[in-house]
From TrEMBL:
Naturally occurring in which organism (per UniProt): Phascolarctos cinereus
Gene (name only): PLEKHF2
UniProt keyword terms in alphabetical order: Endoplasmic reticulum, Endosome, Membrane, Metal-binding, Protein transport, Transport, Zinc, Zinc-finger
Protein name: Pleckstrin homology domain-containing family F member 2
Domain FYVE-type: residue ranges: 152-212
Origin organism lineage: Eukaryota, Metazoa, Chordata, Craniata, Vertebrata
Domain of life, source organism: Eukaryota
Length: 249
């Protein structure tokens, strides 16, 4: 089905509409063989709070952006190559239901669909596209993925020292290796994580010691289900770290 649609006028027109919705700031999406599989609004768990994002699934990439005017205008386009993607279901908890993790070597995050059926359809389509891509290329699935950041609202104190309370002065930071919310003194070091940045990035002391000793696995996040917890709303929900999407995520 995908191969038959690749060169169809309807597919070309649909992709062109998506390009136009992102405008000049977006990257061109029309290339030979690319097919738009589906689209929809998903709730992305950003660092501050869950936010609606428009997602487009192609046979080789996943594209998402901020909604400016529904079905007319989007910005902050992000393109994720599907061959680097793995997905894991998240347990329902609180108001956040029908979710799964989208994990890549560069960036990982949680998304939530409106219904269980929609979640199943998204996950099935993504898995099929990834399987087809890897089958054609002969590549193996990626075992490396960036940590999913723990939302700011889940940590009122540093998740490493368990002592430092976050205030407007003592700000939140995120370890780029484990995704934990940590204080400044617990995350003063930098380490080069080539899949995430060409420059050394902030990591916590715990991960720095393990990475420096060559123990790459131990500092991987172990709270795989924690990212589905319902965010609270602490008064001092402040941080000076920005993720690569925008300062509010």
């Amino acid at each position: 089905m995908v191969d038959r649609l690749a060169n169809s006028e309807a597919n070309t027109r649909r992709i062109s509409i998506v390009e136009n919705c992102f405008g000049a700031a977006g990257q061109p999406l029309t290339i030979p063989g690319r097919v738009l599989i589906g689209e929809g609004v998903l709730t992305k768990l950003c660092r501050k709070k869950p936010k609606a994002r428009q997602f487009f699934l192609f046979n080789d990439i996943l594209v998402y952006g901020n909604i400016v005017i529904q079905k007319k205008k989007y910005n902050k386009q992000h393109i994720i190559p599907l061959e680097n993607v793995t997905i894991d279901s998240i347990k329902d908890e609180g108001d956040l239901r029908n979710g799964w993790l989208i994990k890549t070597p560069t960036k990982s995050f949680a998304v939530y669909a409106a219904t269980a059926t929609e979640k199943s359809e998204w996950m099935n389509h993504i898995n099929k596209c990834v399987t087809d891509l890897l089958s054609k290329s002969g590549k193996t699935p990626s075992n490396e993925h960036a940590a999913v950041w723990v939302p700011d609202s889940e940590a009122t104190v540093c998740m490493r020292c368990q002592k430092a309370k976050f205030t407007p002065v003592n700000r939140r930071h995120h370890c780029r290796k484990c995704g934990f919310v940590v204080c400044g003194p617990c995350s003063e070091k930098r380490f080069l994580l080539p899949s995430q940045s060409s420059k050394p990035v902030r990591i916590c002391d715990f991960c720095f010691d393990l990475l420096s000793s060559g123990d790459l696995a131990t500092c991987q996040p172990t709270r795989s289900d924690s990212y589905s917890q319902s965010p609270k709303s602490p008064l001092n929900n402040v941080s000076d770290d920005e993720d690569d999407e925008d300062s509010s995520d």
